[in-house]
Amino acid sequence: MANLGTIILIGILILLTVIIFRRPFGCLLRLIINTIGGFIILFLFNFVGQFFGVTLSLGWFNAVIVGIFGLPGVGLLLILQWLFGISMGI
Description:
By secondary structure, the chain is an all-alpha fold. Helices cover 78% and strands 0% of the residues. Helix 1 crosses helix 2 (60-69) and helix 2 crosses helix 3.
C-alpha cells in the first residue's frame, strides 16, 4: 500500500500537468474544430458556387485558412486563386 505522501505527490503532479497543458490542448482542439468548420463552409461554398462556376479546393490547407479567418478566409482564397490562377488546396 502506497503511503499518503506518495499519493499526495502524484496528485499534485497530475494537477500541475493539467494546469500547464490545458491551454495548448485547448488551442489545438479549437483549431481542429475550426478546421472541420472550414471544411463544411468550403463544401457549402462549392455546392452553391458550382452554379456560378466558382469553386475552391477542399484541401486541408484551405480548410485551416477558412477555419481561422472565417468568411474573409474564403475571400482570401478566392483572391489568391484569381491572382495566381491556381487552387491552393494542399
